[in-house]
Amino acid sequence: MNEGYKASFRQIWKSMSLRFKIGLCIVAFFLVISFVLYWFSPGDVMALSTYKRNQPLSWEHPLGTNRQGQDIFWLLVESIHNSMVVGIVVAIAATVIGVLIGLFSGFVGGAVDRVIMFICDSIIVIPSLPILILMGSMLRGRASLMMIAGILILFNWPWPARQARSMALTIREREFVNTARFSGEGLFKIVCVEIVPHVLSWAMANFVNTVLVAIGSEASLAVLGLSSTTTPTLGNMIYWARQYQAIMLKQWVWIGSPVLATSIMFIGLFLTYTGYNEYVAKKRGR
Amino acid sequence: MMRIENISAQYQTITGPVVSVKDVNFTINDDEIFGIAGESGCGKSTLLKVLYDVIQFPLEIANGRVVLDYTDRSGQRRTLHSGEIKRAWWDAISYVPQAAMSVLNPVYRIDEQFYELFRRHRKGEGEKAMRDRVVQYLGELDLPVDILKSYPHQLSGGMRQRVVIAMATFLQPNMIFADEPTTALDVVVQKSILMMLMELQSRMHNTLVIVSHDMGVHYQITNRMGIMYSGSLMELGNTEDIFSNPLHPYTQMLIGALPKVGDKSTREGIPGGPPSLRNPPPGCRFAPRCKKACPECSQSVPKFVEVAPGRFAACHLLGK
Amino acid sequence: MRLTKFILSRIMVWLLTILVGITVVFFLQRMMPSDPIETMISKMTSMGTNLSPEALEAMRESLRRQYGLEGTLFEQYLSTITRLVHFDFGLSMANYPTPVAQMIGQALPYTVCLLMTTTILSWIIGNAIGLLAGFKKNKWYSKTLETVSMCIYPTPYFMVALVIMILMAYVKQWFPLVPSFDDFTFTWAWFSDAVYNSFMPALSLMLVGTGWWIISMKALSSNVAEEEYVNYGRMKGLTEATIGYRYVFRNSILSQVTALALHIGGAFGGSLMCEIIFGYPGVGQMVNTAINNSDYNLLTGVIFISIFAVATATLLIDLIYPLIDPRIRNS
Fold this sequence. Notes:
The structure holds 3 protein chains of 3 kinds. Chain B is of the alpha/beta class. Chain B has 8 helices and 12 strands.
């Protein structure tokens, strides 16, 4: 049994493109940091003057300490954790909500469908950043991460909704759904048993992409100091580093480490996203 | 005239080459309609690619060559070999593909797609001459002129096929290759497309090569034909002779499977399917399905020999 | 018939987009725990404006009216819509008493120029490179180009901006840290100076934008390159240049035009970030000023204009689309 799993896992791994593998490794690395290493964090990483200031890299402080006497390594770990959580929460919520609304819209059809799709189209067109900025600035750093996540969900559900709807439309026409419907099964059961598996592979890809978009948006906001200023995230770390003139003081590790971490993480997520899409397309035999 | 000299072609795969066309030898004459028949997967489309010189990875020629002899527009005699035949594309030889439905460029009007050919292959004959020529040519083919201003998606499947044939014959090439030209169409349209091809050939006196799995098509329009099985030619000769007196057991089965007017007996299907090209059976490849097979058949490959003038076949039984 | 329906539905989306935008802005403001009027008043008094209690009360009253805070929630909503669609955003708090509309009017040309130039340039460059990479996808340069853009595109915009700024203004002082523009004159000197000053912001926007167009065009054109009609085009003996342009390019560029419409919103967000980071004097910089001064009128105005501009640009691109796609135009 166990051997069987191992063998099929090996087979799947073999059939992946190099790009997909690299992406998955990077994402796994960041997941380990944010959900395993995070629990070893030594207390409040934001607290000022916990350590000596401006320490160089050492065993005790792998990335040194900054001007504020914070340990850069653990600050970074916590930032990655928080960014990751925002990304995953938004991605789960937006994907689930979007897929449900999309399926509903596609199956019900008619005027309801048209109205929902108009709303989708207009939300897609609206630039989300200005609205986030408006909210952030009204709350002046008192915004909690979860409020920002809420707005991000609002702007990210239409993509999966549109996709799920077009899938629902094609699936609706297929024979087996009609058969199921005429044999007296409820719509809900049809959706769960017959349709969700179809939608799942696409929803996975969308999930990864939304993680990327959400982390990116929160980070953009945080860099402007409009996200929660007290919760460390990748963008927030850059914000404080910039506030305290890390560039002028040539404290490259302080500002460089979140910049580098974000870039690598995003490249990893993006490679996973495109690699997964390619993988699915290949499996379908295109 | 095209001579096919001992051609073998194979596909490169991860697990090694798969031979799809093996030791094929024959000649296509000028001014004739030549048919290539066989079940799907017998290598006839691959053979056509080799003849038309579209050799792209993973396809490669393992052995032999194709020689094209033709008289060009200036009246000069030319000889091209595999690898050079490309140069004569559309000028001397043209192609009507299998999926004619989707071979027209969706974003250009039909006239533009004619002009494109003219500009490429008839440089310097002037735009005016070109436009007149296209309109006149469509008239000759009894095609409505207003299709010139249409986009491909506005035309029916049959009309698109006619347009593709018109494009392939527009520059009056010496040879035209048609790969299953009627397969995707309904019966009535099929008939008119075949008539169109025949008429064009008899008017231009060039060579038309038709590949089809449909023996009926061959019976209706070809002068000579070859029967392929598992990558090799099994029989070749005048179409009439082949239908009236099939020599090879495979040909007999193909013809036996055809419906005949007034015949109420059940059709004899051909049991089994063609062998895998990856692991072909030893000896005659048809032997496993052949009702007349003798022990020799599964041991040595029968030679493709001239059994009567212009009549070739590859079967051990014929020598006896 | 189908064309009319297409145009009508696009216009509907345009109207609805603006309406949804206003609605989101409206309810966001109402949901905020802080009272914008009190924030403004305290801001003004803290700036040293000495007002008598009566004057203060009168001002509060006028602000409430101006801000549309009178009547029921629904009345407030209606009055907000009416005000916004007339481009009446009230007076700026930071620059009292300049009307917000006037301030935006001064800043908007800078943003529009920057955004249009970079979006169009990166669309053209990205699609050209992407076409090459997709059409000749087995060549080494195609793979290199794709890998490079795969690394640049997903990187969040402000990262690219920061790196460019650090490299080109701190480490090497090639370009000014903060761009400055003289008053507009129609001279070569002004023009070259403007290009010099906006080089870093434009470069950063273009890097990110181009990366995306390369990736998407590569995917599109390599799919189109495998279509039957492209293969057949080759068998007609057409030149590679003809195949590349008339077959692959013409058939893949269509979806890129639609994609451009969907991309404008994101690009606008990017240019806001860009202006804030580089201190470029456009609408984004105005957002920065508004944030720092809690100038909500200015902020609301800028955001409404953003939504309006993005929706309109999207509409225009969508309406151009039938002109270039015969499949829609002719049916």
